[in-house]
Specification:
By secondary structure, the chain is mostly helical. Helices cover about 65% and strands about 5% of the residues. The chain has helices at about 10-25, 35-60, 80-105, 110-130, 135-155, 160-180, 205-235, and strands at about 65, 75, 80, 190, 200, 205. It starts with 8 loop residues before the first helix and ends in a 6-residue tail after the last helix.
Length: about 240
């Protein structure tokens, strides 16, 4: 691992994450590249929503970045690698979502699933209220709770498929986030202020990161599905 660490380490993690999904997006059966408009707009919204939050949390010292593992180029006090994070990670997860949808039957979004989603919303809200002094905890547990309440109200047909892809994405999540948080290296790329997290970790990953991941992926899949429907309704003009 020592040969990979250094100023390019965060870049290496991002390249590793995107390389296979990007190449396979041009696979003849999946043809993810044909949905580039929906992908682009979904990723754009993800950047517009979560990068400002990331900037604020960085400025509040909720987390910090190891200068030994990043290139050093920053925009609005955020490393360029972190900007790319909000494009690459959601893209990779949309890829997982589409692959699972292609190879497996749709997961029926039953009333039971929506009831469990409502229960999750309540539990997440209780946790957010319990740890109201922890900025990272209260923010993303609250956002996750709101997300679940919205899903329960609107009951989107793709919710079962999303939950499947989220559960599957937890496997690469553990590895990629493990690299970012120092689970497999001597020092982390991203360090968390203990005053703003609960303190429970999986490997060296704060439990909040799993909720953070859930919020981002739910948003990007919702936008992706919305834009897919929208662009289907727009007639193609023939010259």
């Amino acid at each position: 691992m020592e040969i990979l660490t250094g100023k390019f380490f965060y870049c290496y993690v991002l390249i590793f994450t995107i390389l296979y999904p990007l190449l396979q997006s041009f696979e003849s059966k999946l043809k993810l590249y044909t949905k580039w408009k929906s992908l682009l707009f979904a990723l754009l919204i993800c950047v517009l929503v979560h990068v400002p939050i990331d900037i604020v949390l960085t400025n509040l010292s909720v987390w910090s970045f190891n200068s030994d593992y990043i290139l050093g180029f920053k925009f609005l006090n955020l490393p360029i690698e972190e900007w790319l994070f909000f494009i690459i990670i959601p893209y990779a997860c949309i890829f997982i979502y589409e692959v699972l949808n292609y190879f497996f039957n749709n997961v029926r979004s039953s009333q039971l699933i929506f009831n469990l989603t409502l229960l999750s919303a309540v539990v997440l809200l209780i946790i957010a209220c319990t740890y109201y002094n922890n900025i990272y905890t209260v923010l993303y547990f609250s956002l996750a709770s709101v997300t679940c309440f919205i899903v329960f109200y609107f009951k989107p047909i793709w919710w079962g498929n999303f939950l499947r892809s989220y559960l599957v994405s937890l496997l690469p999540f553990l590895f990629i986030n493990g690299l970012l948080t120092g689970s497999f290296t001597e020092y982390p790329i991203v360090s968390y202020n203990p005053e703003h997290i609960i303190g429970h970790r999986i490997l060296n990953i704060p439990v909040e990161d799993a909720v953070y991941n859930f919020v981002i992926l739910a948003e990007v899949i919702a936008c992706y599905e919305m834009f897919k429907k929208l662009f289907k309704k727009i007639p193609v003009k023939n010259n």
